[in-house]
């Protein structure tokens, strides 16, 4: 709601996936512990509540249980006192079990209004002691909540939403240098490639109970291509770029309108419709066209494939006049614009363990960058050609294929970024 008090209690995979990326980048930029906590708690929830044994993530948890909105998540004061006992007073102050947190039917939404450090100061507590107490409160409440009737689970897995989750997990893994998140993302990436692809290279849209169904939409291809590019950024395994390449090539063949340069939402392999629509405006998820344009631009930059970059910029030119009038409806297009109007840093690392330098870079917020790396001079990426030196770590800061003198440490490379 407008007060940021009462949420819509339905939990959507695509929201949480994008919030992983947002909070990870916010932590890179600010180093606020709260943002890291949000990421880790969100991934814990994803693994506990939404993860299928196949490696895919389910779509949503209902808002209602037992016919009441939010019943699974809200608390009465009496129940909190009974469950928390001597921890109640501090928990009530922290979570606003008062007029501010009161919702309806005598229930309270557990609502934080200050960070842990500020709360500890207000209560005259040592911060480590409060963190320990808060963890105990959370564990107690989670155990009690587990006894309640659970909200319904939408247990289908959608390719597009899983792809957004891959990107979010990669962003988290890189921001916090946590291999567990990268491993989760790899598992989901392999699920899409192994389970959601047909013999001739098309994607399925949905998966449930071991059955893949529904011919894929443009968002399945665009989000998955971006996710695979993200997996390359984290692992420097060019297998993921080759897979993204296949998906984008398929999209060009089966979704592109030659006249406008934009891409239809449905494939030409689907049954004929009265009209095929273009999805252009960014909404609660990025539009399939903006996402595809970014993927074409990124892979075109990596492979120096000018025709793909030109396709991407044609798409951007089709909408750029609308961006100033409705920025939030074209925010993903605006990120693509960033690559063109500000220096787009191509950060190339060669040496024994280039992925470690990439993770070191990721401690710093660099919004307009593209990682690439090689361990043995075998990369298919043109910019990496002739940059490998046996046994040496070489880091190149490049813009438009023009590179500064190589350095051996991330700190030196960061000094070369304006």
Q: How would you describe this protein?
A:
By secondary structure, the protein is of the alpha+beta class. The chain is built from 15 helices and 14 strands. It has a four-stranded mixed β-sheet with strand order 12-11-13-14. It has a three-stranded antiparallel β-sheet with strand order 1-2-7. A hairpin with a 2-residue loop joins strand 3 and strand 4 (about 70). The radius of gyration is 23 Å and the shape is globular. It starts with 10 loop residues before the first strand and ends with a helix. About 40% of the residues are buried. The mean pLDDT is about 95.
Keywords:
418 residues; 3-stranded antiparallel sheet; alpha+beta; 48% helix
Cα(first) to Cα(last) distance is 40 Å
- Quaternary structure state of the chains depicted: single chain
Largest sheet: 4 strands, mixed
Strand order of the largest sheet: 12-11-13-14
**Tally of DSSP β-strands:** 14
- Rg result: 23 Å
Fraction of residues in β-strands: 5-15%
Give the overall average pLDDT: 96
Report the structural category: alpha+beta
Number of helices: 15
Helix content: 40-55%
Q: Spell the H/E element sequence.
A: EHHEEEEHHEHHEEHHEEHHHHHEHEEEH
Low confidence ranges: none
Indicate the overall shape: globular
Q: What order do the helices and strands come in, and which of them pair?
A:
Elements: E1 11-12, H1 13-30, H2 33-50, E2 60-61, E3 64-65, E4 68-69, E5 75-76, H3 77-84, H4 88-94, E6 107-108, H5 116-122, H6 127-145, E7 153-154, E8 157-158, H7 159-175, H8 179-195, E9 204-208, E10 211-215, H9 218-235, H10 239-255, H11 288-303, H12 306-319, H13 331-341, E11 345-350, H14 354-361, E12 369-374, E13 394-399, E14 402-403, H15 410-415
Parallel strand pairs: 11-12
Antiparallel strand pairs: 1-2, 2-7, 3-4, 5-6, 8-9, 9-10, 11-13, 13-14
Helix pairs in contact: 1-2, 1-7, 3-4, 7-8, 7-9, 8-9, 9-10, 9-11, 10-11, 11-12, 11-13
């Amino acid at each position: 709601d407008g007060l940021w008090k009462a949420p819509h209690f339905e939990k959507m995979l695509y929201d949480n996936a994008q919030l992983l990326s947002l909070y990870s980048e916010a932590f890179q930029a600010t180093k606020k512990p709260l943002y890291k906590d949000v990421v880790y708690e969100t991934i814990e929830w994803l693994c506990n509540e939404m993860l299928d044994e196949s490696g895919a993530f389910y779509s949503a948890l209902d808002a209602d249980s037992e016919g009441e909105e939010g019943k699974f998540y809200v608390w009465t004061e009496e129940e909190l006192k009974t469950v928390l006992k001597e921890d109640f007073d501090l928990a009530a102050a922290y979570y606003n079990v008062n007029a501010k947190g009161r919702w309806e039917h005598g229930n309270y939404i557990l609502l934080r209004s200050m960070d842990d450090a500020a709360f500890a100061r207000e209560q005259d507590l040592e911060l480590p002691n409060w963190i320990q107490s808060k963890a105990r409160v959370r564990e107690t409440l989670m155990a009690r909540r587990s006894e309640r009737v659970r909200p319904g689970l939408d247990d289908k897995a959608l390719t597009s939403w899983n792809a957004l989750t891959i990107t979010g997990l990669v962003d988290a893994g890189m921001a916090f240098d946590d291999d567990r998140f990268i491993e989760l993302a790899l598992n989901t990436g392999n699920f899409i490639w192994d389970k959601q692809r047909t013999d001739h290279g098309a994607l399925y849209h949905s998966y449930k109970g071991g059955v893949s169904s529904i011919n894929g939409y443009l968002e399945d291809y665009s989000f998955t291509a971006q996710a695979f590019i993200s997996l390359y950024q984290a692992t420097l395994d060019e297998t993921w770029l080759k897979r993204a390449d296949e998906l984008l090539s398929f999209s060009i063949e089966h979704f592109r309108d030659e006249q406008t340069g934009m891409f239809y939402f449905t494939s030409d392999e689907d049954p004929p419709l009265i009209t095929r629509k273009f999805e252009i405006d960014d909404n609660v998820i990025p539009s399939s066209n903006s996402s595809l344009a970014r993927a074409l631009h990124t892979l075109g930059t990596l492979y120096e494939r000018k025709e793909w970059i030109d396709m991407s910029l044609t798409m951007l030119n089709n909408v750029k006049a609308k961006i100033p009038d409705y920025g939030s409806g074209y925010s993903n297009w605006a990120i693509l614009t960033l690559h063109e109007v500000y220096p787009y840093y191509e950060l190339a690392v060669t040496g024994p363990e280039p992925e470690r330098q990439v993770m070191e870079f990721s401690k710093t917020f660099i919004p307009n960058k593209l990682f690439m790396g090689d361990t043995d001079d075998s990369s298919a990426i043109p910019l990496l050609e002739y940059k490998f030196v046996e046994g040496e770590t070489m880091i190149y800061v490049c813009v438009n294929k023009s590179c500064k003198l190589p350095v051996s440490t991330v700190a030196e490379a960061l000094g070369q970024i304006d």
